[in-house]
Amino acid sequence: MSKRSGILEFAVLGLLRESPMHGYELRKRLNTSLGVFRAFSYGSLYPCLKTLVIQGWLIEESVVDSDPPATPLAGRRAKIVYRLTAAGKEHFEELLAHSGPDAWEDEHFAARFAFFGQTSKDVRMRVLEGRRSRLEERLEKMRASLVRTRERLDDYTLELQRHGMESVEREVRWLNELIETERAGRSTTRPESEHAEQDTHDNNQENGGRPENRGTA
Q1: In 3-state terms, the chain is what percent helix, strand and coil (to 5)?
Q2: pTM to 2 decimals?
Q3: 3-65+77-99, CATH topology level
């Protein structure tokens, strides 16, 4: 199995763990929720689904389309809905528990991070720290390369390399923040008080900037 197809299988199993879907719904979720899969097409998604069915991790169910037919004479079409089996759920949980070096790579890390809400804290920490270590190594090599080749590069190539370094530096800072949040046991979501303050602000904006009248004198 190629690394890219392995990432797709992981993401499909993870999405179907949330709820059964048909192929078009899966493709939309892969594109909107997991931007790393924008390059995937039906040509790669359906063979993946068929493979997962053969392995016993998914089952296919025929469901009548609830949308009205396009023409009066056309009948309602049946859609194939994919559902995760018990074996598929167990396999996905095994994949979630994996925190080896391939989980730190660019595309695989993005897929793993998308399912951090279903991942245990100790695995999240190992993946985050591994990703940070990998990027710090990459950053060190980029800096050394820039020092060696600076004199031979034109201004545009030099600027491109600097841009790449800045992108890696930003991700390292982001990972540092995530790791500190995990260690402190804090939630990455806003506190309830902050939600309340924002709701009050939104209500005031809807009332022309005036506080909402909560009673009469």
Answers
A1: 70, 5, 25
A2: 0.73
A3: Arc Repressor Mutant, subunit A (1.10.10)
